[in-house]
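User: Can you help me understand a structure? I only have the sequence.
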Amino acid sequence: METKFASHCSHKIRYHMVLCVKYRKQLLRDRGRIAKLAQTIKEIGKAYWFETDEIGTDGDHVHLFIGAAPRYSPSNVMQIVKSISAKEMFKAFPELRKQLWAHEFWSDGGYIGTVGDQANAEIVRKYIQEQGEHEEKTLSKQLKLFKL
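Assistant: Let's start by predicting it. Here is the structure, written out as tokens:
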């Protein structure tokens, strides 16, 4: 993790976020869905200047290792990722609306933890990489969208 510079400040802020699918439904086991979600999160990062270092899925939830400028609060980062990714997932996979009664993709809330330098960052990175079943791990290694 390197220090980033903006016009009025420098920063090195990273979060470990966990987003759970509504009702903890196992909707993230399909290769197409995982790839679409990863692509969407990458595009959100480009649009909002977030840095997504890792993403891992475990069927009913997603782990993100993500950085953002201090102008965004941690809850604001999560809200942006959840709202845009939900819209894109429903647009790409309309059948998901039938499986999620409230027509919401993500559960309310989630987990946000700050990550410090070196040891903490590596621990979170490894933890995220080890998420999921063997097939999901293989898929996430094939995607390699977020390796910097």
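Now, to help you interpret it: The chain has a mean pLDDT of 87. The two ends are 10 Å apart (CA to CA). Let me know which part you'd like to focus on.
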